[in-house]
Amino acid sequence: MRNFYLIFILSLFNMVQAQNDIYVGVSYGTSDIFRKDDASHYNYKNTEFGVFVIKDFAWKSNADKSIKKHWFLQPKLNYGQFTFLVDDHEQDIYRASLGGGIKFEKELRKLALHARFGLNAGYQSGYYQRLEKGVYFAEKLNLGLRFNLNPRMKSFIDIGAMHISNANFYPLNRGLEVFFIELGIQIPNKKTEKF
């Protein structure tokens, strides 16, 4: 666990020092959208809050493309509350993850539309009733808008979905599905393209 947090901090430091676009932000997520009163499959509820940094690495071929492509890295810290509804047991859970993937972006005058497809690996401190504590993996899809705050700074809003599991490395791996929203600020460097 200690080594994972060290890797997390070093990755964050490296991203801040790099020369491509940097995003910082907060997120809110829940699984309640999947839960029904008569559905034993989802006999829990959870909410979670997160802080993150995203580092974009633009593809060299973007200059003449209408849809631009970027690789990205995303270290993230989460705090969540999980409630098992059968006995109304509530638990605080902490997660740290490092994710990455590809982003597609289409610029439209003062706006840019984007989609992110990513994979995450991380560690969670607590037991989710559907997922044991320990190492986990996640597949993630974001859809969002990016827009100008001023000539040198932009903001974004994303909605997305994520599936979390431990890939059957140890028992209790029914997984979680989470819908989330992310809000953040993009701080571009001098070489960032303007739109």
Summarize the structure.
GO terms for molecular function: hydrolase activity. The protein has 195 residues and is mainly beta.
Give the SSE map.
Blueprint: H1 2-17, E1 22-30, E2 44-58, E3 67-84, E4 89-108, E5 111-124, E6 134-150, E7 153-165, E8 176-187
Antiparallel strand pairs: 1-2, 1-8, 2-3, 3-4, 4-5, 5-6, 6-7, 7-8
What is CATH's topology name?
A: Porin
Q: Helical residue percent?
A: under 10%
Instruction: Provide the CATH architecture.
Output: Beta Barrel
**Overall structural domain count:** 1
Structural class: mainly beta
- Continuous helix count: 1
Poorly predicted tracts of residues:
15-19
As laid out across the biggest beta sheet, the strand order is 1-2-3-4-5-6-7-8
Determine and state the CATH class. Mainly Beta
3D structure, described in words:
The radius of gyration is 18 Å and the shape is elongated. The protein has a single domain, classed as Porin (Beta Barrel), CATH 2.40.160.20. It is mainly beta and 195 residues long. The protein starts with a helix and ends in an 8-residue tail after the last strand. The protein is 8% helix and 61% strand. The chain has one helix and eight strands.
